[in-house]
Amino acid sequence: MSEPEITVEVVYAEPRRTVSRILHLAAGTTVAEALGQVRESEAFAGVDCSRVGVFGEACSGSRVLRHRDRLEIYRPLVTDAKTARRRRALSQPGKKPQSRPGN
To answer: Whole-angstrom Cα distance, residue 65 to residue 102?
Structure first.
């Protein structure tokens, strides 16, 4: 009898491209083992796999994957969201920075 198999989608997104790959893995495969397989793929060459998650929840390489999980590879943030929002607001004509009480 063969080992039970799970199907997992591995995704990585950049501003102008998204890479997705479906993997058929043995039950009990960890995140680290799945990443080892996609690193061999040319589509994932050079991708930093140090920050990952499953369905938007950060996890470690030791997490065991389940059937139909979506393993997401996160890219580093260029700017944090609060700073980016502040810059956009200041770039709009007629807008002045607002100070909050107590700041």
So the answer is: 47
- Position 8 scores a pLDDT of 98
Query: Which residues, other chains included, contact 26 with Cβ-Cβ below 8 Å and sequence gap of 6+?
Result: 3, 4, 5, 6
Question: Which amino acid makes up residue 38?
Answer: V
Domains of the chain: 5-91 (3.10.20.30)
If you search the block for the tokens 């995704």, which residue do you land on? 11
Looking at per-residue pLDDT, the higher value among 46 and 27 belongs to 27
- Burial readout 26-40 (b: 16 or more C-beta within 10 A, e: otherwise): eeebbbebbbeebee
